[in-house]
Amino acid sequence: MEKHFSDNITVLDSAESERFKVEILEYKELSGSNDPQIGKDLYYVQKSGMKLRQVKLTLEDGGMITEPGTLHFHKGNISCESNIGGVGGLAKKMLHNKLTNESTFKPRYTGTGEVFLEPGFSHFLIVKLDNGSVIVDKGIFYCCEDTLEVGVASQKNISAGLFGGDWFQTRISGTGICVLESPVPMNEILKCNLNNERLQVDGNFALLRSDSVNFSVERSSKGIAGSMTSGEGRLQTFEGTGIVWLAPTQGVYSVMRNGGVSTLIAPPTQ
Question: Whole-model pTM?
Fold first, then answer.
């Protein structure tokens, strides 16, 4: 571990290529506040198991792209440039921003040195692509090696756009390393490998899928009456060969946020 890391900081996960390295740092505890109210909040944060995390990127004559506003600090011979690409590129990026809920101008950092992004309580997932392509839920792209291309994926099926929640998502393709900001940690993600198979999901908790996997939305039962009586409505449907990442616990956290733990407990049967 690098010398500038204290004993309070550990490397939760990492990945590297020839010119690029990413590390997910985790702070064991936060004890620097001199405000009693903040200390009270920190007590409950630590008791709940929440940890502060930070993404560190190391460049060796390499480059990276990140969401704007995420830079914390960097050291070394690092330069930053916008990747607008002229008037045509500006229009394309503004369209991408409108469609995917991601920022129009993504800063590109190049050179040799270390870049630290803003710390927070988010969960970060490392994805490595080898001449591949994945489609991720909109808004969860965080940063990547500049050898990857970040673009827009439109839903090919009308039902997917109407009932799946989004007409457009984010496509990441090429060879390199990407970091996603996830609503749940990696150990709560279920990776489903499909081999010319079908996967149906009741809810919007699919975070990532291979570009080779087709997506549509179907009724859970044949006919309108069947859908009404089944209680499931419409199901997100993934078909083909590839991988789908699911976050089954994501809905649990949403329910707890809105109504508390008691809403998850079924009433006793009479």
Answer: 0.81
